[in-house]
Amino acid sequence: MTDLPYRPFPDDAAIRRVGEGLLDRTLPRPDWTHEAHLAATLWLARDRRDIDLDAQIATIISRYNAAVGGVNDDSHGYHDTITRAYLAGIRAHLAARDPAEPLVASVDALLASPAGQRDWPLRFYSRARLFSVAARRAFVTPDLAPLPVA
C-alpha cells in the first residue's frame, strides 16, 4: 500500500502494456485510470513518434472507449480540451526531462507533479468553460491562463 496521491507504475513494461492496450483496444476498462491516461499519452509522445498525436489522439481514445463499451457523447467519454491540455503539460514535462531517463521515472515524476493532478486543467480553465459540451467536443482555448508550451 502506498501513501502517494497517485498509483505509481512498477516498471517500463507496465506503461507500455497500457499504451499498447490503448492502441489495440485490449486494455481492460478498469485499467483505464487517470494515471493510465497520462502514462499512455506520455509513452505515445516520447516513444511512438510514428503517431501524430495532434491528428490522432481523439480517434485513438474515442475508438478505445467504444471498444470497451463506453460512449463518446456530450457528457461521457472522450473530452478533447482536457486531453489536449494534458498533452501540452506532458510535452512540457518531457522537454524538461533527460530523454535517456527510464520511462517509469518520467511517468512517475509526471504523476507526482502539478501537471499530473486530476484538477490541473482548472489552473487554465474556469470550471464552466472546461466542462462545457463545446470543450468536450473540440479544443477550446483557456480562459484563465495559457497552457504550457514545450
Question: How would you describe this protein?
Answer:
The chain has 150 residues and is mainly α. It has one domain. It has seven helices and no strands. Helix 1 packs across helix 2, helix 2 crosses helix 4 and helix 2 crosses helix 5. The radius of gyration is 15 Å and the shape is globular.
Can I get a quick summary?
This protein has 150 residues and is mainly alpha-helical. It has helices at 12-24, 34-47, 53-67, 80-95, 103-112, 127-130, 133-137.
Mean pLDDT: 96
* Order of secondary-structure elements: HHHHHHH
Structural class based on helices, strands and sheet pairing: mainly alpha
Specify the helix fraction band: 40-55%
- Rg for CA atoms: 15 Å
How many domain modules?
1
Instruction: Describe the main β-sheet briefly.
Output: none
N-to-C span: 34 Å
Shape: globular
Task: Give the arrangement of secondary structure elements.
Layout (H helix, E strand, L loop, with lengths): L11 H13 L9 H14 L5 H15 L12 H16 L7 H10 L14 H4 L2 H5 L13
